[in-house]
Amino acid sequence: QVQLVESGGGLVQPGGSMRLSCVTSGFDFSMYAMKWFRQAPGKEREFVATVSLNPSSTAYSDSVKGRFTISRDNAKSTVYLQMNNLKPDDTAMYYCHAVRGVFDNFWGQGTQVTVAS
I need a labelling partner for 79 at 20 to 30 A (CA). Which of 17, 41, 53, 58 fits? Predict the structure, then answer.
């Protein structure tokens, strides 16, 4: 069955770094665009970053541009999110999302990132 398993979250101080991973299985990873979303308590889920089938084609939300980097490894069916210069506003549950179409997409269960001193 399809699985997307995020890991790498935890507690980090402001200004610190963290790398999230999303290991996938059960579908052809190379045929899906991969995205990261996040959801803070009391807020709607928001887009963070995306990488297309071409690993060099990426896009970011304005709030993380220049601090976060998304990447993918098709050989490992894994997508990463490198997060640098973390801020308290980055505190949220982070989810990976695989997309090939409106009705062909999958979500992971999320990993919690908390930025606090």
Answer: 41
